[in-house]
Amino acid sequence: MVSDNPLQQVRESAKWVSEHADNVKIDPIAINEFLTNLKKDEYDSKSSTVIFPLNFSTPKHEVNFWFILDLINFGSGFRKELHEASKRGAYETICYGLFGMYLSQSGNLSANFLNKLSLNEISSFFSIPIIEEYEMQPGIYTCRDTPLKPLALKIQQVLKESSEVMLELGFDSFADFVWKITDPVKTAQKGGCLASNFVKELVTKIPAFNDQVKYKDHNVFIFKKAQLLAADLNRRFKDSESARFNFTDIDQITVFTDNVLPAVLRKFGILKLSKELEEKLDNGGELLPGNDEVELRVQAIQASIEIVEMSKTRPDNFIKNSLELDYYLWTKGKDESFRNEFRDENNFVQDDLFKENELLPIFDNNDYQVLLNSFNISLDRDRQIIYNITKGKHYTQLQLLENDRVLGFFLDKVRDYLSENGFDVIKFEQLVKLLCNSLFVCKIPFIGSAISFIIDSAGILLEAQCYRDIAENLPAPKGGIQLTGISLPKLL
């Protein structure tokens, strides 16, 4: 029976994965050697609290900053591209962007401000280029998306989605939400100041915090970012705001597994890989989402739990909990002298196991087929064009621009379908995400222009011209693409 305590859910998941892992094992002898060689001075120096170079006028402003930082603490899969573009890693890029946003708003990073951020503003604040010029033919230049645009889109999506939740719940900022759920009077009625209750509020209210994945038909709970926020607020405010953030169960928080921790633990010999997986990583192969990725990341959680437990049996123990251990391991992995000896973290193509649409399916295959078939109900000019588009007929950029009115009809048909089937605005936006996925994953040439209209209507501020450029530059499919034959899970 799965516990309703999210911290225990993560621990139970880690134990289950460890017991059923095929290609990643934990070496207890290496754990003992790690503890024997660990020096207290180095451990303490690498697990100290981070202080940001900002003048926070109120504790709520700082809490709000921490909330946003941990909410969008992703992007390590773009490490190489980020360094090429700005000489910053993923974490440094997120901090840099938040510093700029904070200063531009005099510290008031409201839900309304975050909800309305355009893609261009995200690009500017975080110094993430989204469009680049390239030479199509000698002397002829055009623009195309950069490899970093998906990261900018993800940041915008998470900020928009999460801030919308705040606005729907009646909060002006993330800090207001935190203040509400950590009200000492109310927490006293729920067992006291508990990290488990705090994390539970986050993962049940905000989809971006609810990270979990399927592994061998078993739900595996990660809750990386939610636990990280609880830990960061505890470390920063356990003294000054003790009634809210001095969580009595802080020792139950696990490490915040990402791409760095498994690489560090492997370097220490604690994680042992199968020969096949080891050769793949050592040869620079990409670690795609799947069982191997789950095992690496979740075994890092279990190994850290075992390190803490084993340390308690030693007379010279100075490791208090997984929280401190995580900060040490992560900081250790960022040391150039240590980091140059391994590059496993670059094998991960993403740093979040969780994919929202996998857990929030909106349309099943039948829904999607009915929606697309609804375009082929007449042979008049407009509907015939829509029919041709859904069959994958390749249009030139000029033709796409001339057919704006027709694509408006496409949008009307989507709206009609949603209305007739009782779908609300949130599910309308899920269709936008689905269509975006069909563009990026399936490379369907027609969909870009249609997406631009739907996105604009849904209030997601992306440039329609950019999507038309994508549609124009993709090759025409041979014989057309039957969208009704696409399996929805592949899109999601």
Question: What would your notes on this structure say?
Answer:
The chain has helices at residues 6-20, 28-37, 40-45, 59-71, 79-86, 90-104, 111-115, 119-126, 149-169, 174-181, 184-188, 195-205, 224-237, 242-245, 260-267, 275-282, 291-311, 322-334, 336-339, 356-359, 365-373, 381-390, 397-402, 404-420, 425-442, 447-457, 464-473, 488-491, and strands at 24-26, 131-137, 140-145, 212-215, 218-221, 271-273. Helices cover 58% and strands 5% of the residues. The radius of gyration is 24 Å and the shape is globular. Strand 4 (212-215) and strand 5 form a beta hairpin. The strands form three sheets. A two-stranded antiparallel sheet has the order 1-6. It has a two-stranded antiparallel ribbon with strand order 2-3. The protein has a two-stranded antiparallel ribbon with strand order 4-5. Helix 8 crosses helix 9 and helix 12 crosses helix 13. The chain contains 28 helices and six strands. The longest helix is centred in the N-terminal third of the chain and has 21 residues, at 149-169. It folds into two domains: 6-355, no CATH class; 361-491, no CATH class. By secondary structure, it is mostly helical.
> What amount of the residues lies in strands?
5-15%
Mean of all residue-level pLDDT scores: 75
Instruction: Name the overall outline.
Output: globular
The low-confidence runs, each spanning 5 or more residues with pLDDT under 50, are: 353-410, 432-492
List how many beta strands DSSP finds. Answer: 6
The level of helicity is 55-70%
Give the spatial strand order of the biggest sheet: 1-6
Tell me the number of helical segments per DSSP (H or I, 4 or more residues long): 28
Look at the helices and sheets and give the structural class: mainly alpha
User: What integer value in Å does the Rg equal?
Assistant: 24 Å
For the record, give the distance between the C-alpha atoms at the N and C termini, rounded to a whole number: 29 Å
